[in-house]
Design goal:
The protein is of the alpha+beta class and 106 residues long. It contains three helices and four strands.
Length: 106
């Protein structure tokens, strides 16, 4: 929460109860819970992320949506810059984002 100032990385939503931690790559051990292996996303956007309908572009650090999602109320997110921490050491790992984007085929 602190790395993202309590705001969703995709749309800036700051409702305290709304954000969830979305793991970019599977996290099986508590020790693997590294802020750089996740994103803070609003719960509904987290769900879209988990099923591969939303990803991050590592070149532009922006949101990429599947074609299906682009035709919904979430269309405003496509191409939107991902909100990152002011501390680069807390940014998501580009390798993990690239791997996830490849998996999601976006």
């Amino acid at each position: 929460m602190a790395a993202y100032s309590g705001r969703c990385a995709s749309n800036g939503c700051n409702v305290t109860e709304a954000p969830d931690v979305a793991h970019i790559s599977p996290c099986r051990r508590k020790a693997a819970n590294d802020v750089r292996k996740g994103l803070l996303l609003r719960a509904d956007i987290h769900d879209l992320f988990d099923i591969g309908l939303i990803a991050g572009d590592t070149e532009t650090m922006s949101v990429v949506l599947s074609i299906e999602v682009r035709a919904t109320k979430y269309s405003y997110l496509h191409g939107k810059e991902v909100r990152l921490s002011g501390d680069e050491n807390l940014w998501p790992r580009k390798e993990a984002l690239a791997s996830y984007k490849s998996w999601s085929q976006l």
